[in-house]
């Protein structure tokens, strides 16, 4: 009896301690966003005083948001960033799923070679190729524009998509595609009418991961933009461009950062339930 009670108390203590640890980690990760939001409402006099960083604003103001929206050309940049994100996601999903489908169904040696080539591309850091990419490829093929940015996002994002979709397709019975072939469907119709609906879960996961990456990305758009595209590119690049041009106002910068990350945070909260299941299923072979 004593041993049973001891085990019961031990399990209860373990649950409580685990909950406290998880709560502490969650609080640690969310604290930067909370302090950014708090400081975005502080006037200049309060925001430049570092001792006030962790304090609530005494005289809160919304002028930081209106000024930031005007300086970074927010609504134009928002639509441009949204368009780049949507177009890049569509390109990655369509080309990635087509490639993964063919590689998963082709039982030849070269299919494995191509698949492992995609895997090798995952471990190459972008920083090691960014200058040759921009100085040679982007300039030579006139990719220093929005369309070029979408092409580059597709190239960098397709490897992970192929890897995840390939593992998911391996779990789909081949008999479904054989039935579609018997009914007279060609490869393209089979892909869009049979395969794509079955990939909805993993494609949703890829959509979430790529959206968070593309929306928050600074390095690639900043390298791609032309010198004359001041205040006419993505949100985060416009914000960065204004930091060195206008008087440094920490509250205004915090307001700009908050207005940029809120849309993707809302998107993640709405879609997060699909991430774990999609990654788990994509890893099954």
From TrEMBL:
The keyword Cell membrane applies. It is found in: Cell membrane. InterPro entries: BP-dep_ABC_trans_perm, MetI-like, MetI-like_sf. It is a multi-pass membrane protein. Keywords: Cell membrane, Membrane, Transmembrane, Transmembrane helix, Transport. Pfam families: BPD_transp_1. The chain crosses the membrane at residues 20-41, 74-101, 113-134, 146-170, 191-215, 253-271. One of its GO terms (cellular component) is plasma membrane. The keyword Transport applies. GO terms for biological process: transmembrane transport. Residues 78-271 form the ABC transmembrane type-1 domain. Belongs to the binding-protein-dependent transport system permease family. This is Putative ABC transporter, permease protein.
């Amino acid at each position: 009896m004593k041993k049973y009670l001891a085990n019961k108390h031990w399990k209860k203590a373990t649950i409580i301690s685990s909950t406290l640890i998880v709560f502490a980690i969650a609080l640690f990760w969310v604290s930067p966003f909370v302090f950014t939001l708090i400081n975005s409402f502080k006037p200049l006099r309060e925001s430049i005083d570092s001792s006030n960083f962790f304090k609530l604003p005494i005289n809160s103001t919304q002028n930081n948001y209106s000024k930031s929206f005007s300086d970074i050309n927010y609504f134009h940049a928002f639509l441009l960033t949204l368009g780049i994100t949507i177009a890049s996601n569509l390109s990655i999903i369509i080309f990635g799923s087509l490639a993964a489908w063919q590689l998963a169904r082709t039982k030849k040696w070269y299919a494995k070679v191509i698949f492992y080539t995609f895997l090798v591309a995952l471990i190459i850091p972008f920083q090691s190729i960014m200058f040759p990419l921009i100085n040679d490829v982007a300039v030579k093929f006139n990719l220093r524009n929005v369309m070029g940015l979408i092409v580059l996002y597709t190239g960098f994002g397709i490897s992970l998509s192929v890897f995840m979709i390939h593992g998911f397709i391996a779990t789909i019975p081949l008999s479904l595609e054989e039935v579609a072939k018997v009914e007279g469907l060609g490869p393209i119709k089979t892909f869009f009418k049979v395969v794509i609906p079955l990939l909805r879960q993993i494609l949703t996961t890829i959509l979430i991961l790529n959206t968070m990456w593309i929306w928050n990305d600074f390095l690639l758009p900043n390298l791609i933009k032309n010198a004359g595209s001041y205040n006419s590119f993505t949100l985060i690049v416009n914000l960065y461009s204004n930091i060195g041009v206008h008087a440094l106002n920490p509250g205004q910068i915090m307001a700009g950062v908050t207005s940029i990350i809120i849309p993707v945070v809302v998107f993640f909260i709405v879609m997060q339930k699909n991430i774990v299941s999609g990654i788990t299923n994509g890893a099954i072979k």
